[in-house]
Amino acid sequence: MLNNLKKELVIKFLKGESSPIEEQRIFQWLENPDAWERFEKLMEEQFENPTKSVDNGTDYTRLLGKIHERVLPATSGDKRSFQLVSLKSFKVAASLILVLLGGYFLSQSGLKRNEKTIPPSNPIKSIERITGIGEKLTLTMPDGTRIIVNSESAIQFNSDYGRIDRVVALNGEAYFDVVPDSLKPFKVEANGATTLALGTAFNISTKNTGHQVALTEGRVKVEVGKNTVHLTPGQMAVWDPAKQATEIQIQDFNVEKVTAWKDGRLAFERESLGRIIEDLEIWYGVTFKIDPNLDITQRISGSFENKI
Q1: Which of 51-60, 152-161, 198-207 has the lowest mean pLDDT?
Q2: Which comes out higher in pLDDT, residue 237 or 11?
Q3: Maximum Cα–Cα distance across the chain
């Protein structure tokens, strides 16, 4: 039931005697769907006994117009007028507008509830792929770029890859065959270095002391600290992250030696036997027992096919 203050305000409103501030309080109160039933009961009570409070001379057209204008949103091309010539006509119109307003506010409150409960769509997630000893992985990205990940390596990217940018992070070794996109350069972040490419093919390794980016096709830019170099096919950028000075050296390289692993081969050119043994252990996922009398410093050239 209405408290005395609110009942008094509603009666003044129905009589057309409310001040602008009091009208505003009524309109705010009517925004609560629960208020409509109480408002209707009070209105019926007053109009069933008009001599009590409400004068039959009240401008009901203006009153209903105010409710329509202030509480319902204006609708273009749907300007309504209320021609009320009797108390009965006013009650019929008032009942109708109560139904309309009540339905409007119920729908609005439902919309607000829905707005609050709608969860964020497709949250961005970080995706990581890791290879163990003796494992290799080939990924085809949403843009068609192909990434071959060598053993004991990890590559990471966001689930929205390609939507705004194309960025991956690498720890280990991988070969990238990048689909061209001038608006979204392909970027690899690897142990403090950034390699930027539009459409190209290159190999990145952070496994050994000398980290390297070897370009086989296209053109890339390599950034390490404040130093930047541009590579052309057949060139390799080499740097040592353990050193404070991030100087980048550009060298020529043997494409077969650097990239053969992605095709299932290991190629060596005057490599120490000790280093070859370490690579074979990772390649096959095994451990070799070395004869103490074996000279592992001797240099060997050759290749191994992965037939296991």
Answers
A1: 51-60
A2: 237
A3: 121
Nearest partner of 128 among 152, 158, 149, 151, judged by Cα: 158
Q: Please check whether residue 156 is in contact with residue 126, taking contact to mean a CB–CB distance below 8 angstroms.
A: yes
Tokens of 212: 């390297």
Q: Annotate 173-197 with DSSP letters as a single string.
A: EEEEEPPP-TTS-EEEEETTEEEEE
Task: Give the whole-angstrom CA distance, residue 237 versus residue 252.
Answer: 9
Statement to judge: residues 67 and 193 lie in one domain: no
Residues in CB range of 20: below 8 A, 6 or more apart? none
Task: Report the distance separating Cα 171 and Cα 208, nearest Å.
Answer: 11
Of 117, 136, 164, the residue at which a domain comes to its end is 117
Nearest 5°: phi and psi at 99? Answer: -65, -45
Residues in CB range of 257: below 8 A, 6 or more apart: 267, 268, 269
Helix-strand-coil percent breakdown of the chain, rounded to 5?
35, 30, 40
How many domains does the structure of the chain reveal?
A: 3
User: Which one-letter DSSP state was computed for residue 107?
Assistant: H
| Contact predicate 287/281, CB 8 Å | yes
Domain ranges, residue 235: 126-261
Among 13-27, 73-87, 216-230, the range of highest mean pLDDT: 216-230
pLDDT band at 121 (very low <50, low <70, confident <90, very high): low
pLDDT for 87 equals 44
Q: Which residue has the higher pLDDT, 64 or 41?
A: 41
